[in-house]
Write a structure and sequence with these properties.
The chain is α/β, with parallel strands linked by helices. It folds into two domains: about 200 residues, Rossmann fold; about 60 residues, rRNA adenine dimethylase, C-terminal domain (Helicase, Ruva Protein, domain 3, Orthogonal Bundle). The chain contains twelve helices and nine strands. The strands form two sheets. The chain has a seven-stranded mixed beta sheet, sandwiched between helices. Strands 1-8 form a two-stranded antiparallel ribbon. Strand 2, helix 3 and strand 3 form a beta-alpha-beta unit. Helix 9 crosses helix 12. The longest helix has 13 residues. The radius of gyration is 21 Å and the shape is elongated. It starts with 6 loop residues before the first helix and ends with a helix. The relative contact order is 0.11.
Length: about 280
């Protein structure tokens, strides 16, 4: 089977099936074998593993995953790619192809069926417009996850990894870090894809925590608090949280909680760490 990490093989398959890239699905196929090998290495795939791949495209990375993993489930939304995948993956008997929107798939059920409920690994070259809903959907759904290794837009990867005080730090950083330890493992320039995206990309590995790094009484309340803190970044926490109708807090309550934490009244959300947000949430 010709490996698809080589651009000419990719072009040949696309021509054979007269495939047209769909803008609405944000399709950019990887055409660099070094990057593919690095993703597989950083995802730490072994013969014990059941891997779910989101957006396999024409099966470029799927071939690599199938060589390394015990079992691969490839979830592809574009029905025009299904016959191509059946062709490019025909040599592998450990791959299941599902034509579905990943946000509608019951991943818990898949993990149960394919991996006896043990933690799975997720690997994906994600369409950039839907990265956050997919990542957060996986993390929040309490699916048994070992790690998520994904190719995303470079600035999104930076945001996931950032700590307090930087302009990239925000609700996404905190949400990801509550569930997982993020590490950028590779930067990938636009020429590694077909068609070429307009932005740089990065591979980030999220290693899921067995339990969250902070103790919080009410998770939903903490995340509402975090979202309200970053909704209006220029505002102080006292004003931002005091004005957020969904939270039902007074400015006095917020100010008192900050004071008891030894924080100045004019502090902004971007200065607080995850631990401090958990403490603030528990106080309020």
């Amino acid at each position: 089977m010709a490996t698809l990490g080589n651009p000419s093989n990719t072009i040949e398959i696309l021509q054979k099936y007269q495939f047209h890239f769909q803008k609405k699905y944000g399709q950019n196929f990887l055409i660099d074998t070094h990057v593919l090998e690095k993703i597989i290495r950083e995802a730490q795939i072994t013969k014990e593993d059941c891997v779910i791949e989101i957006g396999p495209g024409i099966g470029t990375m799927t071939q690599y995953l199938a060589e390394q993993a015990r079992e691969v489930v490839a979830i592809e939304i574009d029905k025009n790619l299904i016959p191509i995948l059946q062709d490019t993956l025909s040599a592998y008997d450990n791959v299941t192809i599902i034509n579905e929107d990943v946000l509608k798939v019951d991943i818990n059920k898949l993990a149960e069926e394919k991996n006896g409920g043990r933690p799975i690994k997720v690997v994906a070259n994600l369409p950039y417009y839907i990265t956050t809903p997919i990542v957060m959907g996986l993390l929040e759904s309490r699916v048994p996850l070992d790690s998520i290794t994904i190719m995303v837009q470079k600035e999104v990867a930076d945001r996931m990894q950032e700590g307090p005080g930087s302009k990239d730090y925000g609700a996404l950083s905190l949400a990801v870090q509550y569930y997982a330890k993020p590490e950028i493992v590779a930067n990938v320039p636009p020429n590694c894809f077909m068609p070429r995206p307009n932005v740089g990309s990065a591979v980030i590995r999220l290693t899921c925590h067995e339990k969250p790094p902070v103790e919080v009484k009410n998770e939903k309340f903490m995340f509402d608090l975090i979202r309200a803190s970053f909704n209006q970044r220029r505002k102080t926490l006292v004003n931002g949280l005091g004005n957020a109708a969904s939270l039902n807090l007074t400015k006095e309550q917020v100010a008192a909680a900050l004071e008891s934490m030894g924080l100045p009244p004019a502090i902004r959300g971007e200065a607080l760490s995850l631990e401090q947000f958990a403490e603030l949430s528990n106080l309020l």
